[in-house]
């Protein structure tokens, strides 16, 4: 465990990457390295496609994508990607800060979409961290047993990293199962 911006951070690894058949709902699940706590983050379809490939088969930059632009800019500026830190924005989404060492030795912290930061760290094979506060907030009381953590699945949305607005949406559509039934 380390510190970033005065906050304790915990290293995470990519545990799962998935999308629905239409590619509309895409997510990456990060798991605490050597632990059970997990965080799910919504990402776009291009991120899922990139992360789903084997790293040795991946080619960054992907032609015509934002990864092409980001990777090209980092290299042209003589930068080196060090890590990313995911934190709670205090709103209904997460924020990620990508840390880059400039050619002049300065450490730069740039705000990125979570999926972009994860994809860039995955390609450059550098660590991804989550603030301890965020990880504890979303996993409080969940999976405290000694098993692999999956036998005590939380009840619908409990203990998972689901922004409030998305949780409200899910609650609304849960009631749609009874439509058309008498």
Task: Please tag this protein with its features.
alpha+beta, globular, 5 helices, 182 residues, 27% helix, eight-stranded mixed sheet, single chain, 8 strands
Write the layout of secondary structure elements.
Elements: E1 2-4, E2 7-19, E3 26-32, E4 38-42, H1 45-52, H2 66-76, E5 80-88, E6 94-101, E7 107-112, H3 114-124, E8 128-131, H4 132-139, H5 164-174
Helix pairs in contact: 1-3
For the termini, the CA-CA separation is 55 Å
Number of helices: 5
Order of SSEs? EEEEHHEEEHEHH
Helix content: 25-40%
Largest sheet, in brief, is: 8 strands, mixed
Number of strands: 8
* Morphology call: globular
Q: Can you tell me the residue ranges where pLDDT is under 50 for at least 5 consecutive residues? A: 55-61, 143-162
What's the average pLDDT?
74
Percent of sequence in beta strands? 25-35%
Structural class: alpha+beta
| C-alpha Rg (nearest Å) | 18 Å
Describe the 3D structure:
It is globular, with a radius of gyration of 18 Å. 27% of the residues lie in helices and 30% in strands. By secondary structure, it is an alpha+beta fold. The protein has helices at residues 45-52, 66-76, 114-124, 132-139, 164-174, and strands at residues 2-4, 7-19, 26-32, 38-42, 80-88, 94-101, 107-112, 128-131. Residues 55-61 and 143-162 have low confidence and may be disordered. It contains 5 helices and 8 strands, in the order ββββααβββαβαα. Strands 1, 2, 3, 4, 5, 6, 7 and 8 form an 8-stranded mixed β-sheet that branches.
